[in-house]
Q: What sequence folds into this?
């Protein structure tokens, strides 16, 4: 039992570390290796989705892979989830990285819990509680310092990156809420795997995986692509899901904060991106918000697919 728990801890820490590194490596691909956002999104989704379905086929109930398409409700919902959830959250997140940096993009995406709170309150599904107020205050304060570095006269982050990052948070909120009925019926590997495949195929009509000039690629370009697709997408998600077999959702959510922390540190240390004192303070407030949510509200758990 103790060994199973250690395995779970190792899996969730590894998965979230891979997520954080994957975003930072994507920034390197966009800004220094000439890789286009749309192309990377289509390739990343297609390969990772196929590998997740393969994992389901080899290690879990393979009957579920096709069964999800046999019912009108699940098939329709899966397509909507793939296009409005999976594809949208992947593209907006990557676009935020390309126009800014991985640290800010990841932290802005993690404002999704606040957007979910606002949504359920406006829908009348929940009342606005003191706990919600603390969450919103931490999120807004953290975002202010992160984006302005404490100065009202200028933004420390490019406006396109902020817009894409906020849209990433909105789409992640949709992704989280809309997937719930499907995840009650099928394994997460089936739902997310198919969502990635459908989203990847759709994206391929605009950015075909084979439409790329590989003549400028180096060995490092290929290495970075492997990191993003295999480690930053497929393994990161699979490890996180597997960790839930031996860890509670609260524990996995708390350890999930390793992702934004990894993204921030990798962006600053490896890519040498400037990060001001007040930006560090803002990042700390957003991380505190995530920890506060994980400790106090176990039912609101986000699994990141950045």
A:
């Amino acid at each position: 039992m103790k060994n199973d728990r250690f395995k779970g801890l190792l899996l969730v820490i590894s998965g979230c570390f891979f997520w954080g590194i994957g975003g930072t490596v994507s920034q390197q691909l966009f800004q220094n290796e000439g890789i286009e956002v749309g192309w990377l999104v289509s390739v990343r989704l297609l390969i990772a989705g196929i590998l997740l379905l393969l994992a389901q086929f080899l290690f879990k109930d393979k009957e579920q892979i096709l069964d999800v398409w046999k019912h009108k409700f699940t098939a329709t919902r899966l397509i909507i989830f793939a296009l409005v959830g999976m594809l949208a959250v992947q593209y907006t997140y990557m676009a935020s990285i390309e126009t800014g940096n991985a640290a800010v993009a990841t932290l802005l995406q993690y404002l999704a819990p606040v957007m979910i709170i606002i949504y359920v309150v406006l829908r009348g599904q929940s009342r606005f509680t003191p706990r919600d107020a603390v969450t919103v205050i931490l999120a807004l304060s953290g975002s202010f310092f992160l984006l302005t570095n404490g100065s009202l006269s200028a933004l420390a982050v490019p406006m396109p990156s902020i817009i894409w990052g906020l849209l990433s948070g909105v789409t992640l909120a949709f992704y989280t809420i809309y997937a719930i009925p499907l995840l009650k019926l099928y394994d997460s590997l089936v739902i997310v795997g198919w969502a990635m495949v459908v989203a990847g195929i759709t994206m391929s009509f605009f950015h075909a995986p084979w439409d790329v000039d590989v003549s400028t690629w180096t060995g490092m370009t290929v290495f970075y692509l492997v990191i993003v697709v295999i480690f930053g997408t497929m393994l990161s998600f699979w490890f996180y899901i597997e960790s839930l077999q031996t860890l509670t959702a609260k524990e996995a959510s708390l350890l999930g904060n390793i992702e934004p922390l990894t993204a921030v540190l990798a962006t600053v240390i490896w890519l040498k991106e400037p990060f001001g004192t007040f930006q560090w303070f803002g990042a700390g407030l957003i991380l505190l918000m995530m920890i506060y949510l994980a400790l106090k509200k176990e039912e609101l758990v986000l699994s990141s697919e950045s």
